[in-house]
Write a structure and sequence with these properties.
The structure is a single chain. It contains 15 helices and 13 strands. The chain is α/β, with parallel strands linked by helices. The strands form two sheets. The chain has an eight-stranded mixed sheet.
Length: about 425
């Protein structure tokens, strides 16, 4: 399944022009739903005048050095990191010809290792020996290595943590260097920061969007009204369950929830057992709980080649699969994603935060709230399977449209 975007985009633009010239009004898709938001403008002089963020040489010589903590090779966080790196380049902090991987195929640890081997210019560098996947290296080993870098070698200026587990882990270490946390669903409920307006610790910053997932589920409900939606998750906060429950209460539909243990093993037997159990959970949700929609939450299925088989039972019963985060799910057989994160825009925002921190700003003084402009991804083959006909307006506003054809294009209208 590939993104077939360029040809379809041209068709839609032509159709739009014909429609517009015929006198029909086109109303923006976002004007009719809860996803219409305004995001932080990091290019405005207001923030930059208060917190300078331009490239500067480290006082005393050398380069600023960044440590990176992630969970594992998750495509979503890899893409998010990709756009932070590209924005750091655009802002002048680093220089390189091109990255060795595309935005939708990023292993974050491999990317950091590659960056650590490059001469990125005079301002900053990434540290290969301070580049961690918690799921594989374990908290004890990572904590020991980070403490050695910070307390003994004194060669880390910023710790960049991607995700809820890395963020809470790094915060609890109390490392006494700036900690920037990105890629968390709800850093406030997770206890990383005190609120969207106040970090609660001058050394800690986390990106916050308080209503991203309530808006997302509202859009799904408005598009395909359901009475009972299923969700399987391993962490209530990471899966945005409190936000989704608030939307359900406001719209009088039910969430059928099942909590399972997270797969943290590379052992093939453990993986087969995990996915067999998950398939049974799905079967019960459909046949016994009578769900009429399903939302796939973060971290439940981490292998793309497992998705087609696991999704099949839903489509045999004409049940749509919505996605919390990750275009890879749509490409591999889910129905629809309204992404709560604009990775490019967020990348520019986070690059600004990194730059301001290196210029001497306290992370806790920097703005944390960024409300993304959402984008829509849809799988047309799945829409056909479940009997859903997307409106012209929906197709026109889609960032990515997936079909069974093997053609790839630029896709953005």
């Amino acid at each position: 399944m590939k993104r077939n975007k360029a040809a379809l985009s041209r068709i839609l633009v032509i159709a739009w022009l014909i429609w517009a010239l015929s006198g029909c009004a086109v109303t923006s898709h976002q004007e009719n739903n809860s996803m219409d938001r305004v995001k932080v403008d990091t290019s405005s002089g207001v923030l930059q005048n208060r917190f300078p963020s331009g490239p500067m040489v480290k006082g005393g010589g050398g380069k600023f050095r960044i440590a990176y903590i992630d969970i594992d090779e998750y495509p979503v966080t890899g893409s998010m990191l990709y756009y932070v790196i590209e924005s750091l380049k655009q802002d002048g902090w680093i220089e390189y010809d091109s990255l060795p991987m595309s935005a939708d195929n990023v292993d974050a640890q491999k990317l950091i290792h590659w960056l650590a081997e490059q001469d990125l210019g005079p301002y900053l560098e990434f540290v290969s020996s301070a580049n961690y996947y918690l799921a594989y290296e374990g908290e004890e080993s990572v904590a020991q290595s980070l403490r050695d870098h910070i307390e003994n070698k004194k060669d880390i200026d910023v710790v960049f943590a991607m995700g809820t587990w890395p963020g809470t882990f790094a915060k609890n270490l109390d490392l006494n260097v700036p900690l920037l946390v990105y890629g968390t669903v709800d850093p406030v409920r997770a206890g990383i920061v005190q609120s969207a307006e106040n970090s609660g610790d001058e050394m800690i910053w986390a990106q916050v969007d308080p209503s991203a997932f309530t808006r997302q589920l509202q859009f799904y409900y408005d598009t395909f009204p359901f009475t009972r939606i299923g969700m399987v998750y391993n962490d209530e906060i990471v899966a945005a369950i409190p936000d989704y429950e608030r939307t359900a209460a406001e719209n009088n539909f039910t969430i059928t929830k099942v909590r399972i243990g997270k797969l943290e093993s590379n052992n093939p037997a453990d993986q087969e057992r995990y996915y067999a159990d998950l398939k049974e959970v799905y079967r019960k949700m459909i046949l016994e709980d009578k769900i009429d929609a399903y939302l796939i939450n973060t971290d439940v299925i981490t292998e793309n080649d497992r998705m087609e088989e696991l999704f099949r039972i839903f489509y045999e019963h004409k049940i749509p699969i919505f996605v919390q985060v990750g275009d890879n799910y749509i490409e591999n057989g889910a129905f629809m994603l309204v992404s709560p994160r604009d990775y490019k825009g967020l990348g520019a925002f986070v690059s600004y935060i990194v730059g301001a921190t290196l210029n001497g700003a306290k992370p806790g003084d920097l703005p944390q709230e960024y409300t993304s402009s959402p984008y829509l991804s849809i799988n047309l083959d799945v829409a056909d399977t479940i009997g859903f006909t997307p409106t012209f307006e929906m197709l026109l506003s889609s960032e990515y449209i997936y079909t069974g054809e093997k053609q790839e294009g630029s896709g953005e209208l």
